[in-house]
């Protein structure tokens, strides 16, 4: 180790903290300028929290969520201390006291990065905690928050024997948990205090459609209700929860997904400015020099992130700032886009969505099809997309998320914009009206044979597909146009019963409008 | 004679000359090498008719049908030309070759052997590709040889070698695809580039299983949609993100073949670590392809696999021609491996080779780092073997040289070549950032171009040598499935035209090389067989007689595998441990980001009527008329924003140059993308725009994405 190497201490081995270590190493691949230590509270190597709902659903095992293969961090000279807590930080001496495996040690740092993330918020409802409700108190048997890979393992284990589960909270995480438990054959009820699920990302109409969709995949959904009590199983009576209207719901398992809170206790103790999260500026700096914060614990321009992308963007910027890779790097915020990850619920929400259709300051497009579980709402301002909800209309999501991200002017054709291009595309080739097709239309692309050329060949005596092929080469490339040529021959047979004769005007075939020939009929007639 | 491609086939696969009256050969153009019969004794009355063969099933496209026109074009070169007083003037062969050989000797004496360079092409026969490599290494003793295949197949080749240990475009016969119910095409538009290939996609299309990833709604993508299949309309240059997002879905939704991954591959954990971060929702934002569409594509492949109805993933230039092309193909191979497709019958991964001999041309030593038989030039064993066939000391063989663009951009510079010989290529039109390449060509002491038409490159040469074209020569080519085919002579060339084999033999003699350079293609092929023996692309048991008897022989074909190898990797992959490799790669994206000054992404490609730089097909009146002039496809809103309407002339402008084109408004374009075909030169040259950033592994340039703007032309 060279003397001049600076030590970056990252507190938190979650997706933001681990990403920062990786980004720093990307800029200093041989660890010549920076030593990096990541201290993580969980006993596991860094993993991808976003994948946990897939683990609950059975698509992945817990090990599949590792961010990197075993040995990756060590091979890149990133020191990772798992199962460790930072007890306190002294910003004046630039030290931190860390306890790991029961032993305390003091680490010095040149740059400190808090990436402490968030914790699940578990309401102080009677019966959810094993003791006095509050942070630090373990949850009761049969009650699991949904935050860590260990939580995930507990849910999976409980689902083995549970026949009923109640999910508290109908937000993104709650619905993903419900979807995963359904996949494991558990009867699931989602209890949500608002009138519709995912109320932070949807409007009322979209929420109503989503409610139908959630019920349609087999979950029970109880809206506008709170759980006031949870009863552990006693004397052969199964566990259950009680709602504020007195309803009892069987609940072998209770999954709590009622939101998260930024973890700021260490920051507060260190004397940093903390509002909802640790307050950072556009360079991810806190109120003390050489102390930075990223991820869900940080509050940037009043926003506390709840998704991974802002944390990754912040990690990239902070790595540039710390290493000097881009000394002018700033973090300007991340446009938030929420996608529900469930194969049978296709939901995207972005930007401002709670705008009335008749709002004067916006152009709002809406499409509602509750029976088929479809809902689309696009909010435009000055021809640019500022918000959208897409439910069950996944085809359009790709184009719309890009329009939202880039702020580009949206296409004028608003219908295809909203519903996706495939819906407006004309149907299969068989449906094309051969009669109305202009003479210049190319029938055989492989050989650039137009309708006029085929009509000409027909009139010159080539009245079968084979003869047309001989005369014009149509159908001799990929063969795809054989049906069209056949149909054209049939139409000409019916329109001009005496093939080979000269017609009065050459334009008659393109301007006259006889009945279109259905392709199936055309094939039969053509073969006769 | 019926030309109905869908009637019951006669026995296929024979490629014997005597099947019907006329000469049985294969098309002048692309890598599908459609079988055709030439009848007639002279160029004036030669006619082309399609011939039944597994690859084209009796079909031909308009290029093939009209290929005889090239034999009688007034543009045909019939005499050597030497530049005098600034003008190309007719000269005798002796005069022309003297100019060339004098320049070679003078230049190498003054600057060293590497001051003379050679640039080949993927359209040359196997014999010429082989002999060109030998001529460079043994007669010129230069390391400076590369070819236009670097701009064609190199990314797919590099990824194939990296992951499978071997590159053969399709490691299975093309007819295998014909029985598949699911085919995912990546940046491939065979409906225009090799139309008869579509006959092999009919089943997939009819089953709703044709899936096309392309920024444009190409005729191929339209065919997919018409059958109920998919169009993945990604933003140009985001292919790797699409691959990783789909790989993520394959794993999380249970489509991965865990048994195959465990038994027949290595490195999955490393790849998963990358793909795990490519949540499909993230890939959607980058690519613009909806998660539902990705999911449908992955599940479509898996369903066809599970029901044993055939599932293939095929890449082509759209996904490969990027500065990150090797990694992009590597990512798609990882997807195919995760699904357990390669190395199993009825499923697989392949790349669709473009140029006529794009496969054979990349195996026998035209590449800067390569020796015949797909050997590596820095491998001592390979050098010893090939040197023994050539009768030279291995130590005298040069090492690896510059790749295509690096070679061309070094021309006329200190330490760069001062004499260049071009064979079967037209880099003035086809090179990336072609304005720079054209400047470098002008800085040469001598540019020698062998061609049969006055291409844009020949037009700026100092010496132009008139050579034979397809129907005038004997030889072999290797098609897109690794099958060796015979090209047969139907008529004599104009009297002053000579084969390149004769050119090299004569030049070797003139510069004092004692090694024999045979001029009979059959003799050269026999030497190629010996040189390739024991190499990855082993042709040793492929004989002229067996080919003439119509045998279907796919390399490797050797004493151990006398019947050839139609299907590779069924038992083991060609890696040292026999396992296919998952290689961890990430999405990089286009080198040049769009910005307010250049707000659109330009992507380039082909039209049905033209082949490559268009030097040949533009001379065929029927094709030129059908294709029309240079155009640019633009979304109507984008056109209007630039003050343009359908039919207007516009300049497409990048940081490197401008291209003039007629606007064709197209509702199906992405608003952020414009498309330009690259078949024209001069003001209409699409490659005036393109970016020459190179792939770190394959040295493929960034042809398929650059930032541009549209300007109305007053």
Automatic annotation (TrEMBL), chain A:
UniProt pathway: Nitrogen metabolism; nitrate reduction (assimilation)
Segments forming domain FAD/NAD(P)-binding: 7-302
Presence of the UniProt keyword Iron in the record: yes
GO MF assignments: iron-sulfur cluster binding; metal ion binding; oxidoreductase activity
Residue numbers spanned by region Disordered: 497-528
Pfam family, one: Fer2_BFD
The BFD-like [2Fe-2S]-binding domain, residue ranges: 442-486
Swiss-Prot/TrEMBL cofactor(s): [4Fe-4S] cluster; FAD; siroheme
Keyword Iron: yes
Gene3D superfamilies cross-referenced by the UniProt entry: 3.30.390.30, BFD-like [2Fe-2S]-binding domain (1.10.10.1100), FAD/NAD(P)-binding domain (3.50.50.60)
Protein name, as recorded: FAD/NAD(P)-binding oxidoreductase
InterPro entries referenced in this protein's UniProt entry, alphabetically: BFD-like_2Fe2S-bd_dom (IPR007419), BFD-like_2Fe2S-bd_dom_sf (IPR041854), FAD/NAD-bd_sf (IPR036188), FAD/NAD-binding_dom (IPR023753), FAD/NAD-linked_Rdtase_dimer_sf (IPR016156), NasD-like (IPR052034), Rubredoxin_C (IPR041575)
Lineage, highest ranks first: Bacteria, Bacillati, Actinomycetota, Actinomycetes, Micrococcales
UniProtKB/TrEMBL annotation, chain B:
The keyword Membrane appears for this protein: no
Gene: nasA
InterPro entries the record matches: Asp_de-COase-like_dom_sf, MoPterin_dinucl-bd_dom, Mopterin_OxRdtase, Mopterin_OxRdtase_4Fe-4S_dom, Prok_molybdopt-oxidoreductase
Keyword tags: 4Fe-4S, Iron, Iron-sulfur, Metal-binding
CDD domains, per database record: MopB_CT_Fdh-Nap-like
GO molecular function: 4 iron, 4 sulfur cluster binding; metal ion binding; molybdopterin cofactor binding; NADH dehydrogenase activity
Protein name per Swiss-Prot or TrEMBL: Molybdopterin oxidoreductase
Domain of life of the source: Bacteria
Any GO CC annotation of this UniProt entry: membrane
Protein species of origin: Terrabacter aerolatus
SUPFAM superfamilies: ADC-like, Formate dehydrogenase/DMSO reductase, domains 1-3
SMART domains per the UniProt record, alphabetical: Molybdop_Fe4S4 (SM00926)
GO biological-process terms attached to the record: respiratory electron transport chain
Chain ranges of the 4Fe-4S Mo/W bis-MGD-type domain: 20-73
């Amino acid at each position: 180790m060279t003397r001049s190497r600076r030590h970056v201490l990252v507190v938190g081995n979650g997706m933001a903290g681990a990403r920062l270590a990786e980004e720093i190493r990307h800029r200093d691949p041989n660890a010549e300028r920076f030593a990096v230590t990541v201290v993580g509270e969980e006993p596991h190597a860094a993993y991808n929290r976003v994948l946990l709902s897939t683990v609950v659903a059975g698509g992945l095992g817990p090990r599949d969520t590792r961010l990197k293969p075993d040995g990756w961090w060590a091979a890149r000279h990133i020191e990772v201390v798992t199962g460790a807590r930072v007890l306190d930080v002294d910003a004046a001496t630039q030290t931190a006291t860390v306890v790991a495996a029961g032993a305390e040690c003091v680490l010095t740092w040149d740059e400190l990065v808090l990436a402490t993330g968030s914790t699940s918020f578990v309401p102080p409802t009677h019966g959810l905690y094993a003791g006095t409700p509050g942070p630090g108190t373990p949850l009761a048997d049969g009650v699991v928050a949904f935050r860590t890979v260990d939580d995930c393992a507990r849910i999976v284990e409980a689902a083995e024997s549970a026949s009923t589960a109640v999910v508290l909270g109908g937000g993104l995480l709650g619905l993903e948990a419900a979807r995963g438990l359904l996949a494991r054959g558990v009867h699931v009820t989602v209890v949500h205090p608002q009138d519709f699920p995912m109320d932070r990302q949807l409007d009322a109409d979209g929420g109503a459609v989503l409610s139908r969709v959630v019920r349609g995949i087999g979950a029970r959904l109880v809206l506008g209700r709170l759980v006031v009590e949870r009863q552990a199983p006693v004397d052969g009576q199964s566990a259950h929860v009680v709602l504020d209207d007195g309803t009892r719901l069987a609940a072998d398992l209770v999954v709590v997904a009622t939101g998260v809170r930024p973890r700021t206790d260490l920051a507060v103790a260190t004397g940093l400015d903390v509002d909802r999260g640790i307050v950072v500026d556009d360079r991810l700096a806190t109120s003390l020099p050489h102390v930075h914060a990223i991820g869900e614990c940080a509050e940037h321009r009043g926003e506390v992130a709840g998704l991974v992308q802002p944390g990754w963007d912040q990690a990239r910027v902070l790595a540039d700032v710390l290493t000097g890779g881009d000394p002018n790097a700033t973090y300007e915020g991340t446009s938030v886009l929420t996608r529900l990850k469930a194969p049978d619920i296709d939901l995207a929400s972005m930007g401002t969505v709670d705008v009335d259709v008749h709002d004067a300051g916006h152009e709002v497009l809406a499409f509602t099809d509750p029976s088929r579980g479809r809902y689309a709402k696009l909010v435009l301002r000055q021809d640019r997309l500022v918000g959208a909800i897409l439910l069950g209309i996944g085809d359009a999501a790709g184009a719309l998320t890009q329009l939202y991200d880039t702020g580009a002017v949206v296409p004028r054709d608003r219908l295809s914009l909203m519903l996706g291009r495939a819906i407006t595309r004309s149907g299969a080739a068989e449906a094309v009206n051969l009669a109305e097709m202009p003479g210049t239309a190319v029938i055989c692309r492989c050989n650039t044979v137009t309708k006029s050329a085929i009509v000409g060949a027909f009139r010159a005596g080539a009245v079968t597909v084979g003869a047309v092929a001989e005369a014009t080469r149509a159908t001799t490339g990929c063969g795809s146009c054989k049906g069209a040529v056949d149909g054209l021959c049939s139409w000409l047979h019916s329109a001009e019963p005496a093939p080979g004769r000269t017609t009065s005007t050459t334009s008659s075939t393109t301007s006259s409008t006889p009945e279109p020939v259905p392709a199936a009929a055309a094939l039969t007639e053509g073969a006769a | 004679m019926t030309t109905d491609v869908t009637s019951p086939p006669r026995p296929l696969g024979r490629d014997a000359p005597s099947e019907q009256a006329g000469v049985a050969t294969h098309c002048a153009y692309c890598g599908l090498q459609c079988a055709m019969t030439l009848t007639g004794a002279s160029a004036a009355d030669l006619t082309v008719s399609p011939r039944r063969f597994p690859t084209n099933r009796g079909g031909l496209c308009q290029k093939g049908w009209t290929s005889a026109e090239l034999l009688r074009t007034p543009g045909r070169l019939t005499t050597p030309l030497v530049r005098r007083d600034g003008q190309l003037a007719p000269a005798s062969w002796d005069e022309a070759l003297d100019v060339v050989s004098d320049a070679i000797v003078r230049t190498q004496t003054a600057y060293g052997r590497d001051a003379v360079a050679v640039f080949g092409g993927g359209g040359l026969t196997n014999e010429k590709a082989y002999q060109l490599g030998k001529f460079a290494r043994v007669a010129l003793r230069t390391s400076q040889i590369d070819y236009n295949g670097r701009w064609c197949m190199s990314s797919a080749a590099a990824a194939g070698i990296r992951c499978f240990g071997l590159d053969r475009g399709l490691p299975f016969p093309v007819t295998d695809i014909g029985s598949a119910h699911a085919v995912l095409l990546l940046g491939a538009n065979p409906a225009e580039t090799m139309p008869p290939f579509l006959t092999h996609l009919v089943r997939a299309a009819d089953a709703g299983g044709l899936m096309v990833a392309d920024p444009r709604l190409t005729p191929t993508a339209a065919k997919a949609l018409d059958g109920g299949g998919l169009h993945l309309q990604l933003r140009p240059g985001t292919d790797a993100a699409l691959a990783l997002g789909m790989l993520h879905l394959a794993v999380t939704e249970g489509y991965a073949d865990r048994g195959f991954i465990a038994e027949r591959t290595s490195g999955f954990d490393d790849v998963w670590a990358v793909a795990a971060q490519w949540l499909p929702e993230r890939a959607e934002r980058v690519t613009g392809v909806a998660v539902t569409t990705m999911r449908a594509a992955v599940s479509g492949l898996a369903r066809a696999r599970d029901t044993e109805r055939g599932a293939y993933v095929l890449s082509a230039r759209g996904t490969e021609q990027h500065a990150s092309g090797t990694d992009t193909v590597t990512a798609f191979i990882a997807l195919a491996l995760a699904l357990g497709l390669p190395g199993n019958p009825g499923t697989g991964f392949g790349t669709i080779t473009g140029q006529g001999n794009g496969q054979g041309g990349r195996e026998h030593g035209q590449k800067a780092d390569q020796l015949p038989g797909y050997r590596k030039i820095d491998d001592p064993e390979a050098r010893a073997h090939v040197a023994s066939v050539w009768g030279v000391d291995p130590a005298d063989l040069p090492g690896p040289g510059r790749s295509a663009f690096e070679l061309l951009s070094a021309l006329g510079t200190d330490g760069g070549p001062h004499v260049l010989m071009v064979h079967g290529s037209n880099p003035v039109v086809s090179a990336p950032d072609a304005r720079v390449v054209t400047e470098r060509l002008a800085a040469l002491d001598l540019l020698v171009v062998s061609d049969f038409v006055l291409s844009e490159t020949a037009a700026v040469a100092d010496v132009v040598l008139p050579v034979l074209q397809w129907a005038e020569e004997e030889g072999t080519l290797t098609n897109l499935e690794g099958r060796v085919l015979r090209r047969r002579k139907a008529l004599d060339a104009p009297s002053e035209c000579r084969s390149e084999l004769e050119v090299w033999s004569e030049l070797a003699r003139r510069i004092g090389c004692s090694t024999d350079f045979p001029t009979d293609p059959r003799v050269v092929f026999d030497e190629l067989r010996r040189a390739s023996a024991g190499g990855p692309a082993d042709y040793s048991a492929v004989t002229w007689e067996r080919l003439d008897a119509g045998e279907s022989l796919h390399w490797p074909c050797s004493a151990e595998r006398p019947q050839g190898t139609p299907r590779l990797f069924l038992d083991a992959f060609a890696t040292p441990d026999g396992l296919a490799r998952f290689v961890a790669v990430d999405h990089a994206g286009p080198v040049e980001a769009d910005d307010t000054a250049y707000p659109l992404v330009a992507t380039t490609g082909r039209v049905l009527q033209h082949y490559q730089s268009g030097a040949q097909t533009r001379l065929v009146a029927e094709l030129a008329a059908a294709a029309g002039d240079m155009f640019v496809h633009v979304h109507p809103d984008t056109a209007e924003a630039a003050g343009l309407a359908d039919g207007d002339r516009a300049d497409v402008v990048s940081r490197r140059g401008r291209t003039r084109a007629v606007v064709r408004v197209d509702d199906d374009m992405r608003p952020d993308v414009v498309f330009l075909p690259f078949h024209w030169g001069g003001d209409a040259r699409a490659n005036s725009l393109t970016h020459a950033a190179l792939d770190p592994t394959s040295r493929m340039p960034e042809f398929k994405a650059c930032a541009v703007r549209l300007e109305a032309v007053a």
